[in-house]
Specification:
The protein is an all-alpha fold and about 290 residues long. It has 11 helices and 2 strands. Strands 1-2 form a two-stranded antiparallel ribbon. A hairpin with a 5-residue loop joins strand 1 and strand 2. Helix 6 runs antiparallel to helix 8. It is globular, with a radius of gyration of 22 Å. It starts with a helix and ends with a helix.
Length: about 290
């Protein structure tokens, strides 16, 4: 009993510490953003269409924000059907003997450093665009979206498979006794019952895609202009990573990067809150 109390106390301490650390980081970013918002309003910052530092200062986040949304949307559109197909394949057609190896492979893929994905994107995706689409450079929003799609497939698949496995174990004997074909069972029972978990996985992948820095920075072109599918663009994380090192501490440029980081953090908090709500709703149905 005393051991359980100590365990509970330790877990409570680290939970409180983690939440407090996140809250302090959030407060610090707000503090460093305020000097910028005193000079440039939040609305002007969000709807501004050009970003220029140096002698001609102009800090408009709209093209960079749209590029982050655009590339993440492309990633979700590509990754969702792939993840869903892999999940159904694992649950319905892979024997238990091999499932653990596939799960280990998914965990391995999700743990690969993003710079490795970036190098693969440069050598495969960017080169393919240059050689087959007659582009002077293959760096583009589409290249960033495709690369992000492959990076988030393991996250969406892992969340979806967990729910599908439980549903499959619960209803498989009934489906077999009724003479239902496996493909019909997977399509009408497993898929329908796992839609909320699929949505949770998509939200988790979206948060991962929105915050990705290095891999996207290596293939998207890093041009702070309005994004086009086959044109260069720049995301918020890559903007911060590229310019923070050359921004003078205390300058308007320095504070503008914290303002961009604040926007990114708020978006990720919203996505994670939605993920928690959907996950909780899905678990209550089990």
């Amino acid at each position: 009993m005393r051991k359980n109390n100590w365990s509970k106390l330790i877990f409570s301490f680290f939970t409180f510490f983690s939440i407090s650390l996140l809250f302090l980081i959030f407060l610090f970013i707000i503090k460093e953003s305020l000097p910028f918002f005193k000079d440039i309003g939040i609305i002007d910052f969000l709807k501004g269409k050009s970003w220029r530092s140096g002698t001609n200062l102009n800090y408009g986040l709209l093209p960079i924000l749209l590029a982050s949304i655009y590339s993440s949307f492309i990633a979700i559109v590509i990754a969702t059907p792939i993840s869903l197909s892999i999940s159904l394949l694992i649950v319905g057609y892979i024997s238990n003997r091999y499932k653990k190896y596939i799960n280990n492979m998914l965990n391995l893929l999700s743990g690969i450093p993003s710079v490795i994905y970036g190098f693969l994107g440069l050598k495969v995706i960017v080169k393919f665009f240059e050689n087959n689409l007659n582009m002077p450079t293959g760096e583009s929003t589409l290249a960033g979206g495709i690369l992000l799609a492959f990076m988030i497939v393991p996250f969406i698949t892992s969340v979806t498979v967990d729910k599908m496995e439980k549903t499959y174990s619960k209803y498989m004997e009934i489906a077999t006794s009724l003479g239902l074909s496996k493909i019909y069972f997977l399509r009408t029972v497993i898929l329908k019952d796992s839609l909320k978990n699929l949505l949770a996985g998509v939200l988790l992948g979206l948060g991962r895609a929105f915050g990705e820095t290095m891999a996207v920075m290596m293939v998207i072109g890093n041009a702070p202009i309005m994004p086009k599918l086959l044109g260069k663009a720049q995301t918020i994380p890559s903007l911060i990573a590229l310019e923070m090192g050359m921004a003078e501490v205390g300058s308007i440029h320095y504070h503008s990067l914290f303002a961009a980081g604040l926007v990114l953090m708020i978006i990720n908090i919203i996505i994670n809150l939605l993920f928690s709500i959907v996950s909780r709703s899905s678990n209550e149905e089990v």
